[in-house]
Write a structure and sequence with these properties.
The protein has about 170 residues and is of the alpha+beta class. About 20% of the residues lie in helices and about 30% in strands. It is built from 3 helices and 12 strands; from the N terminus they run H-H-E-H-E-E-E-E-E-E-E-E-E-E-E. The longest helix has 23 residues, at about 5-25.
Amino acid sequence: MFLSSAARARFLTVIVAVLALIAPMLFAPTAAQAAVKKPLDIVTVYYNPPGPDHARNSLRNKEYIKVKNTSSKTLTLTGYTIRDNGPQKFTFPKGTKLKKGKTLTIRSGTGKKSSSVLYWGKASYIWNNTGDTARLYNSKGKLLESCKYTGKRKKATKTYARATATTVYC
């Protein structure tokens, strides 16, 4: 079957228009690929460790937040901060470095810091058992991540991170 030149031109115009519409969908990145790559990521918040919430340092140190270096190089975290919904603020000490792919735990109480553990230095708990929001900022004050939880077992939603009765996974 032969098409006239006018019919062929219309057919080609339609094909080009359809391809122009569907090409972005075919070659668009997946949601995971489209997500912004942050150099530092909140991994977990252990907000309700077993036992009573007494203000003893050994119990406060069971509560923690973990961050991971997701970049391809060692990060200098001097000036990075973590905040909760209230007035609590942790500033990473000068000279804090985290190698690529490594995690760093920040415990609520006091103790001797190491390359993998830092201490908030508080005389009280940081993370509310009934729900809170962990926010991570770079040294220039730019919000890198916000991780909100309800304090109950919950599947992840657009608003809240996945949580168990003790831990939130950001």
